[in-house]
Structure formats: C-alpha cells, structure tokens
Predict the 3D structure of the following.
Amino acid sequence: MNPTEPPESDPSATPPHSNVRQCHADEAGTILAIINSAAEIYRGTIPSDCWHEPYMSATELQSELVAGVVFAGCEIDGVLAGVMGFQRVGNVDLIRHAYVSPAYQGHGIGSALIAYLRAQTDRTVLVGTWSAAKWAIRFYERHGFQLVPETAKALLLRTYWRISERQIETSVVLSAPHLTGEDASRLAQGREGRNRWTSSTVSGR
C-alpha cells in the first residue's frame, strides 16, 4: 500500500522510455516480486509484530485481486518497474499496494503511477499507510493528499479496509480531496447499506 518513492525524488520527473498501463493477469508473480523487494524498506521501521516474511504472500495477493484490486504498472524499457493498486469500495476509491522496485526508485515512477490512477476517477480517493513511513506520507502530500484527522482515521479504516486492529492503531489515512472529521463521518455513513465485503479477510494495505 505504501510507495517507496524516495522523498528527494522529483515529483514532476517523467521516467525515461516509460509506459504506464494496467497490469495483466499473468503478471502476478512480477507484481509480488516488486512488492516484496520494495517492502524491505519497512524492516526495522514498522512495528516488529507487523512485519512478515515475506511481506506479502502469493495467497494474500490473490485475495486482493479477488477482492477487486486492479494494478497499474509502469514499464521502463519494457521492464515492469513499479506497481500501484486501485480498488473501488462503495462510495470511494482506494490506492492500494504502491511499490517501486529498488533499482528504479528516484525516477518519478510513483508520480507517474499516481497521476495515471487519479485520472481514472472523480470520486474521493483514500490511501492508508504505516504512520512510521514518513516518506510515504510526504509522497502523497506532494500529490495533493492530506492526512485525515486522527479522530476519523479508525472509522475510515474499519469502513473501507479489512485490516487488523493492530494495523489500524499503527496506520494513517490520507484523502483527496481533504476531509474534515465531519466529512469522513458522512462519507462512512454513505458506505453503510451498500454491498458489504464478500471476499475473505486479507491483510496488508
């Protein structure tokens, strides 16, 4: 769920010879490899009880795909270098599992992916990330997202994600456009009564 785009990278940079597109069904293995290699940045940063080896399993990724997460990918010279998931949940859209391969970080790939996904929707977009991942928070803030009030965070995470209470405790939520506490409450109330989750419970962002 978190981008690994370094905070010092140029948010306006365009990756050389890049192509942003929707990922194909047969690219799950490549997506998983990108996620797990990039997620190494969390080791020793997020709480130790939230770290898993591997960070995401093939079963977890499959569960996310079944739940409706669609991945966009950025190719550099024909090589898939970064991925970012997008999931429609009720009355909002979520950015999920955003990662750039370590070898390709710092070249604007995360920026290209988020621009591509933001262009696909005119609805409220939410993203959750670890509160300890300060670089991820800065990345989203550079792209127009703002932290929701702490008082609204848990409500949004319980409404739109299926994660553990421990993850809720150690996470933040950012939104575009900005949401006040009252806005968040109204948004979550709008989710009630819509189709509930039918997929199995999944971990991760």
Notes: DSSP finds seven helices and seven strands in the chain. The chain has a mean pLDDT of 89. The CA atoms of residues 80 and 131 lie 28 Å apart.
